[in-house]
Each structure stands twice: as C-alpha cells, then as structure tokens.
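I am writing to request your help with a piece of structural work I have in hand. What I wish to show you is a protein chain and, alongside it, a tokenised description of its three-dimensional fold. Could you please explain, in whatever detail you think fit, how the structure tokens follow from the sequence? You will find the record immediately after this paragraph.
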Amino acid sequence: MHKTQIDIPEKIRRKVVATLSERLADAIDLSLQVKQAHWNVKGPRFIALHEFFDKVAEAVEGQVDELAERITTLGGVAEGTVAAVAGRSTLKAYPLDITTGTAHLTALAAALARYGAGLRAAIDSADKLGDKVTSDLYTGLAAEIDKQLWFVEAHLQAKD
C-alpha cells in the first residue's frame, strides 16, 4: 500500500482495496465481453445491436476507470492486466461461438446481472468497513449497471 493521508486506517483500506480489485476485474472482463458481442453480432438487427453494444461498453468502461482510481486513491495498486483479470474475475466465460443478437443479449444480460450483484454485495462490505465513499461509489455504479441491464433485457422481452 502506498502512503496517503486519507483518514481510513491502512488495515481497513487493504480490505476495501481487495474488494475493489475484485470488482475491477469483473468490470474489465465485462467490458471485454460487451466488446465481444459488439464485434461479433450478426443478423437482421446487426447495426442497431452493434451500436447499442458500443454504448453499453462505454458505460462499463467508465466504471473500470472509477474503480481503478478509487483503488489508487486508497493507496492500492490497480491491477488491470489480462493475467490479473483472468485470475480474479467472478464472471462466467463469455461464449465465443454465438452470433445472433438474441444469443448475445442473453449472454450480456447474465453478465450484467452477475456484475451488478457483486456491486450490491460490495456496497454492504464497504459500509461494514466504514468506508462510506466507496459504498457510495458502488451504489452509483450499481444503479448504472441496473439501467444497462434494463436496456439489454428490453430487447429480450419484446413480443414481436
């Protein structure tokens, strides 16, 4: 841990950074999963979904930066390498053999839901550790992911 004058004891900061690092790995993994869908979607809704997936990716990529910056603010090291992410992400592996819009939407809905659940658990963890700032960060991130999940699921709920 790097030294900082933030008035959170180092023991607590270490625990918070550990949880932030898990969420960072999930966020990086999720951003790559969304890009996988963006690059590989096929079918009659291609352009609409291609552009939509790019917007979802932008929302997630913003979260990657926020999580990494909170880690370093608390004196930790933001670990964003592929090896670190692969070893730490709690998301399921994204299927590489899918192409249809519905298959990508279904896979992304599951990934967004799992990431959102991790953020909600982290809200409680940060609260219990007394870090209201990190808890607030997680709350904002979870709200945005819930919205992105709603957008994705809306495509799956249509009765056309």
The mean pLDDT is 96. Helices lie at 10-40, 46-73, 82-88, 101-129, 132-157.
